[in-house]
């Protein structure tokens, strides 16, 4: 299911941030709406025209481990999810962002990844 993977835009930002984990899916720059699948797992970001398309949970874990941003999704009701972002190992702040409700867990996680990528890109640009 396509909604289990990062979007093309997220894949581009992940590549810019140095995402180098192996996965079985990728986007090509000329075909933004199509996820290509491979039998083996590869770092597709090594190819200049490709963008690795990890599952949402892989992107969430990479952002936690490499960018120190935790994305937490909390169930408010059967079809409502709330998103919390916080920087790990930062004693000056707890919740960096608290976001609106989303209809599904996957939509909430994808929105959280968007926000985390924005935080990470801003931090990268500050250097």
Topology:
Blueprint: H1 8-17, E1 23-28, E2 31-42, E3 50-52, H2 56-67, E4 69-77, E5 80-87, E6 97-102, H3 105-126
Antiparallel strand pairs: 1-2, 1-3, 4-5, 5-6
Helix pairs in contact: 1-3, 2-3
Q: What is the 3D form?
A: globular
Radius of gyration: 15 Å
How many helices? The count is: 3
Q: Give the neighbour order of strands across the main sheet.
A: 2-1-3
The count of DSSP E runs of length 2 or more, i.e. the number of strands, is 6
Poorly predicted ranges? none
Strand/helix succession: HEEEHEEEH
Helix content: 25-40%
- The first-to-last residue Cα distance is 37 Å
Structural class: alpha+beta
In short:
With 127 residues, this protein is of the alpha+beta class. The chain has helices at 8-17, 56-67, 105-126; strands spanning 23-28, 31-42, 50-52, 69-77, 80-87, 97-102.
Notes on the structure:
With 127 residues, this protein is of the alpha+beta class. Helices cover 35% and strands 35% of the residues. It is built from three helices and six strands, in the order αβββαβββα. It has helices at residues 8-17, 56-67, 105-126; strands at 23-28, 31-42, 50-52, 69-77, 80-87, 97-102. It has a three-stranded antiparallel beta sheet with strand order 2-1-3. Strands 4-5-6 form a three-stranded antiparallel beta sheet. The termini are far apart.
